[in-house]
Amino acid sequence: MEGNLQELRSALPDDWKTGVFLGRMLGDAGPSPILIVRGELYDMAQVAPTCAALVERGDFTGAGGRPLGPYDPGTGTQLLSPVDLQCIKACGVTFAVSAIERVIEERARGDWSAASAIRERLETRVGGSIRSVVPGSPEAASLKEALIEDGLWSQYLEVAIGPDAEVFTKAPVLASVGADAEIGIRSDSTWNNPEPEIALLVNSAGAAIGAMLGNDVNLRDFEGRSALLLGKAKDNNASCALGPFVRLFDDSFSIDDVRQADLRLTITGTDGYMLKGESNMREISRDPLDLVRQTLSEHQYPDGFALFLGTLFAPVQDRDEPGRGFTHKVGDVVAIENSKLGRLVNRVVTSRDAEPWRLGIGALMANLAARGLLRGPA
């Protein structure tokens, strides 16, 4: 990678030698699932040709894999997104701040210049109320009635405090990018931001087995013009980053660590601009496992899925002029960090200029077949 990524790279957490991590690396022959088990690296392609298959096996000891010795984070191994055949799902408006920001986008019709005044009015009128209610509760229903009477109700508030969470498909299978890759925003977007999140990895039985960092890039202008543009706002080339690894749940890391997690975000621009922010999963309005349950409601995922849990962080710090707020510029370096999950770094380009997505399901199956990795049931 070019520019600032030479100074700031993706990284494992400080305690990585005590945990178990699932990932994918790109070798000369193609992609392979890998495990880091207490500091030791294993190529698992001969055991399971994909990460999805390895997850379904449920054995994360490294047994049967090709031992590659102690993992060296400084070797420059090209890491891919740690998910492959899993669907990539995402939850939105799971924090009060993000609920308010979505309403701002809606009322501003995607026009950044109108956002500041709307933000002040909404935060004053409904900010505290949204933070204090449990979604789907009688108190939430009463708040809804009051907001409707005040003319402040919104479809975004429905998913913020109503019984049903917003769950959508973020990206096609195999379309996510990994650590130190370029991440894309639409070339015709003028108001956008990163969404630093934790994503759970869930197997076909519906069990959350681990977690990773993710960037659910958002185009505020497109979604603000119409919620029906959500697909165009969310799903573009290179617009979904995951990694650097999935940390699997064990004695050193559990779902409670996810519930208590702090996330740190740093954006560094080539123009000298820097933005820092923090968010805490303790402020999420719905429990992560409830979001998994709602994702599974009346749907099956035979290869499992990754699930973005939503973000508290909505940058409003002015970048170019007062009242303009934040939007990305090409060349921005986005770093998302957590003490248990490490650091995920990506550099912003336009989706048009990002490396084209070419390794689809058919191409992956052809590659695995040529390597002799596709076998029928034993």
How are the SSEs ordered, and which strands pair?
Elements: E1 20-26, E2 31-37, E3 40-43, H1 51-57, E4 66-70, E5 79-80, E6 87-92, H2 96-108, H3 115-132, H4 138-149, H5 155-161, E7 166-171, E8 182-185, E9 192-193, E10 196-202, E11 208-216, E12 218-219, H6 220-225, H7 230-234, E13 240-248, H8 255-259, E14 262-268, E15 274-280, H9 288-296, E16 305-308, E17 333-338, E18 342-350, H10 361-370
Parallel strand pairs: 6-16, 8-18
Antiparallel strand pairs: 1-2, 1-5, 1-13, 2-3, 3-4, 6-7, 9-12, 10-11, 10-16, 11-13, 14-15, 14-17, 17-18
Helix pairs in contact: 2-3, 2-5
Keywords: Metal-binding
Pfam families: FAA_hydrolase
Family: Belongs to the FAH family.
In short, what is this structure?
The protein has 378 residues and is α+β, with helices and mostly antiparallel strands.
In CATH, the topology of the largest domain is named: Fumarylacetoacetate hydrolase, domain 2
Radius of gyration: 21 Å
What global shape is seen? globular
Q: Could you say what the CATH architecture of the largest domain is?
A: Alpha-Beta Complex
In angstroms, what separates the terminal alpha carbons?
42 Å
Helix content: 10-25%
Biggest pleated sheet = 11 strands, mixed
Extended strand count: 18
The low-pLDDT segments are 1-6
Number of helices: 10
- CATH class category label of the largest domain: Alpha Beta
What is the name of the CATH superfamily of the largest domain? Fumarylacetoacetase-like, C-terminal domain
- The class by helix and strand makeup works out as alpha+beta
- Give the DSSP E fraction (strand runs of 2 or more residues): 25-35%
**Number of spatially distinct domains:** 2
Reading the helices and strands in chain order gives EEEHEEEHHHHEEEEEEHHEHEEHEEEH
Mean pLDDT: 90
Quaternary structure: single chain
